[in-house]
Design a protein that fits this description.
Blueprint lengths: L6 E2 L5 E2 L1 E4 L2 E5 L5 E6 L3 E5 L5 H6 L4 E6 L3 E2 L2 E2 L17 E6 L5 E6 L3
Antiparallel strand pairs: 1-2, 3-4, 5-6, 5-7, 8-9, 10-11
């Protein structure tokens, strides 16, 4: 299985803080959050002030860049999804990553085109 684990800037350049199996792949500035995954599937959310090295030092062995939290600890952290995108933006595929209380991970991909 493969999913987007980041987003791409101009020229299809990998953007954001990306860690794969404990190795930093990308550490570029971004306004998005990073979703870090520690051993045992423990999630951690990092705002844009954290570097990939900070995230790795905090124990994350994998990360997803271009992440925007919608729900955290069962409560909404955004007023609406419309807050995230300007009107008229293209409809691209989107992915939702959720975690059950037993630490199982659910990844849902929706084709937006």
């Amino acid at each position: 299985m493969a999913i987007n684990a980041s987003y791409f800037g101009s020229g299809a350049t990998l953007s954001g803080k990306k860690i794969h199996d404990g190795v930093i792949i990308s550490d570029t500035a971004t306004s998005f959050y990073t979703l870090g995954i520690k051993p045992g599937n423990t999630f951690a959310i990092y705002n844009s002030s954290y570097s990939a090295q900070d995230i790795l030092n905090d124990g994350c062995i994998n990360s997803f860049a271009g992440f925007i939290p919608l729900v955290e600890n069962g409560s909404s952290v955004r007023q609406s999804v419309k807050d995230l995108y300007s009107a008229g933006s293209e409809k691209h595929s989107r992915q939702v990553i959720a975690q059950y209380s037993n630490k199982d991970i659910l990844i849902l991909t929706v084709d937006g085109r």
